[in-house]
Amino acid sequence: MHNKMIHRFALVTLLLAGPHILQGQDAAQGNIPAKQQSESPKVAAAYRLDFFLIELEDGKKINTREYALNLVPGYLESNNLKIGTRVPVEMKQGEIQYLDVGTNIYGRMRPLGDGLQLDAHAEVSNFADSAQQNRSSMPLLRQLWIGGSTLVVLGKPMVIGAVDDPNSKRQFQLEVTVTKLR
Question: What's the rounded mean pLDDT across residues 152-176?
Fold first, then answer.
């Protein structure tokens, strides 16, 4: 009786699944048509993004910070790099919230026509100078954010954006160079 139930179950399964099971057997035995055998899955390409946060004063470069990310285009998630300090701030009596102070870099690439589109941004925050800090009981933060999208040109530096510092004669630029990894 038990064997009859197993045979009936197998027969029903075969009838319902039909050719899908048989195709699986053909593939396992190497009976795949030549056209399908020659098609190999595409291997995703990986890229290195070298970011440069350039600080200029009166048009002269005075500082460059470098960051790098590796990524594969097309994935929904972006790659991020985060460097800094979490600063506790009392919002209400006894209620603490943490602020991230430092550098955040974000990069994402995706296919666009025959090329690649890069979406990138950098956020840099730091504490205001001590003279400004003394006037407030809460920490004062300075912040800049540069972001944009561009078509990728491999191996060539691309300026994503630039911003002037309103408190000085300084300008900050976010530049990126994309290199294909092997």
Answer: 93
